[in-house]
Amino acid sequence: MEQILGNDWTITPAGGSTGEAYYAHHEGKRLFLKRNSSPFLAVLSAEGIVPKLVWTKRMENGDVITAQQWLEGRELKPEEIKHPRVAQLLSKIHHSSELLDLLMRLGKQPLDPIDYLNDLKKQEQCSSFINTQIEIHQALRYLEQQLPHVQNQKKVVCHSDMNHNNWLLTDADQLYLIDWDNAMVADPAMDLGMILHWYIPEEEWDVWLDTYGIELDEPLLVRMHWYIVAQTVSFIQWHKNRREESEAARWLEDLKRLMVKLGIINI
């Protein structure tokens, strides 16, 4: 990074799972740098969904470095996800034909639920985390049984990680959704299921979705259930592959609670 900005800049890691993000500052100038961020970032910036993209530079080794405004702010607290502004911004993203068109032109293929399920099955076949086998098997069987209800749905741009720490509220009161490395073209129920199950009391789902712009009905409920189960299985497998067994075990407990709530298994 120093070869781009010069030695006068102070550059520090910004954390995250990829280790490819950095903070940089020099004489009052501040930037957020990322290595090999998607070209999708430019249109997200233009739409006001992420902080402004300042520049993009290609390195001799082929790496692409992006620099965004470094804005003072904080991640949303879990209880703040209920705020109408979150529903409104997510609706803007899901209903943007510009975002969808660009992501498709970048070669992102729509997520087919059957392919998603088959990937989960393949991951489990190579798993060595024996303690998850029974619960994962039950979850995969549920996903297979419910598969006809999630096929052939309209696809939109999905962020696919609705964690509250990906929602940035700046000191200037601007709300952004950041960390788009795992963006995909998928059923909006993927994002909606995560955000509702994780953060919104069930008795408030109708109101939240009304702000988003749709009504809660049985088909949407079934699709949200399908995706939240599938994603929870995926999170377990991701941590297993990284040998983060305590995190995998924590997600396994979440999966058990979810399946009990949905009536997939009994206590």
UniProtKB/TrEMBL annotation:
<protein>
    <submittedName>
        <fullName>Phosphotransferase family protein</fullName>
    </submittedName>
</protein>
<dbReference type="Pfam" id="PF01636">
    <property type="entry name" value="APH"/>
</dbReference>
<dbReference type="InterPro" id="IPR052077">
    <property type="entry name" value="CcrZ_PhaseVar_Mediator"/>
</dbReference>
<feature type="domain" description="Protein kinase">
    <location>
        <begin position="7"/>
        <end position="267"/>
    </location>
</feature>
<dbReference type="InterPro" id="IPR011009">
    <property type="entry name" value="Kinase-like_dom_sf"/>
</dbReference>
<dbReference type="InterPro" id="IPR002575">
    <property type="entry name" value="Aminoglycoside_PTrfase"/>
</dbReference>
<dbReference type="InterPro" id="IPR000719">
    <property type="entry name" value="Prot_kinase_dom"/>
</dbReference>
